[in-house]
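dumping this here before i forget
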Amino acid sequence: MTKRHSEPQRSAPHPESQLPLPETPAPDELQLVPMTAEHARQICSWRYEPPYDLFDWPAWDVLLASGSEAGDPEIRSRQFASVVDSGERLIGFAQFFPLLGVTRLGLGLHPRLCGQGLGATLTRRIVAEAIRRAPEDEIDLEVLVWNARAIRAYERAGFAITDSYTRNTPSGPAEFYCMVYDKSHFADS
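structure:
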């Protein structure tokens, strides 16, 4: 993997990101709520271990100044949701990116909860919300081909690889899979 030519400004970890999280929230504790500016600011402070650090969001002031993605209040309210546990602690997020006849998902889990078996449950919750928002849409997502941990979680949640391609990223060209959700799994969720 090629590193970025210029590293984005990074936020210092937000104090909330240092609070203890439950070891693994129970699946029935996960709730999707509207993403607030405070949630987005907290996500900007999350730091993933390499090679997952390419999923780090830029510093909050940089995101706000860009006026893009979760830094834009209108986009944030239409396309983003936060995932919280029963204690209302932020544990993840979702993006519902609208394409013609397709809802493309983006999602992330708090770095300290990655690799603990929550990925498929989180993904199923996000799929249910995508279906609620746009029941006729196909649901897909993109995943880097090397991200076996995410691919396994998405497969357990009902997605299958349907295509592979190269596309540009901030760190250069990368290989991706497109994974599509099989709605026949929805009744089983």
